[in-house]
Design goal:
single chain; alpha/beta; Rossmann fold; seven-stranded parallel beta sheet
Length: about 230
């Protein structure tokens, strides 16, 4: 039987990209890991030993299932709200953004992380846990076409800051991982060659350093964490 003292993480949007890379690294370090994704057929092979909960974070029943999976393990040390919705591709200007698409982006990028954090706060408080909300430079820079996605990440940044103020026992971070060679990044630049972007695995060491060192809560850039290493 697995001990409840074993470090445990929940990572949303772990079907590919950064979520998958981080989950794989934590598993190799002996963590118990619960993951979700909308497409999960490949995850038994990609993440042997993980608890895989298929579904969409915007679905309250799915969030209940995630909370139940974590609750069954009796501990949560790390919540990574990584699942994100970019919105339409190519990225439209605000004047042309369908409101239904904007609602979907906000449901995924803001409300779902808030709901999961609310559901899991008791376990996070017990472990003095860490919350990583995956953000973007679009949260703080005004890029044409990025109004919906960027504003959703700005809202997530503010939720993270307030969570840190209200829950001083937790370590809460809004993490800008930087550009990566991912399916979402490709959708943001359809038809362009993004092979010069780093693979998500290159960002994982910075996240592991953040989890291990627990600097003051707030907004952090993975590039700065990587630069701080010696």
């Amino acid at each position: 039987m697995t001990s409840t003292s074993q470090s445990t993480a929940l990572i949303t949007g772990a079907g590919r990209g950064l979520g998958l890379a981080l989950a794989r690294s934590l598993l190799s370090s002996g963590w118990r890991v619960v993951v979700d994704a909308r497409r999960t057929a490949h995850l038994e092979t990609a993440l042997p030993g993980a608890s895989v909960v298929p579904g969409d974070v915007t679905d309250p029943a799915h969030r209940d299932a995630l909370a139940a999976a974590v609750g069954g393990l009796g501990r949560l040390d790390l919540l990574v709200n990584n699942a994100s919705d970019l919105g339409p591709s190519p990225l439209p200007r605000l004047a042309d953004t369908p409101l239904a698409a904007a609602r979907r982006v906000y449901e995924t990028n803001v409300l779902a992380p808030l709901a999961l954090t609310q559901a899991l706060l008791p376990l996070l408080r017990d472990s003095h846990g860490t919350v990583l909300n995956i953000s973007s430079d679009a949260a703080v820079e005004a890029y044409e076409g990025w109004g919906t996605y960027g504003s959703s990440k700005a809202a997530l940044d503010q939720l993270t800051a307030v969570l840190a103020a209200e829950e001083p026992g937790l370590a809460a971070y809004a993490v800008d991982p930087g550009d990566m060679r991912t399916e979402m990044h490709q959708a943001a630049f359809p038809g362009e060659d993004i092979s010069d972007r780093p693979e998500p695995e290159a960002v994982v060491p910075a996240l592991l350093r953040l989890i291990a060192t627990r600097p003051p809560a707030g907004r952090v850039r993975a590039a700065d964490l990587a630069g701080a290493s010696s």
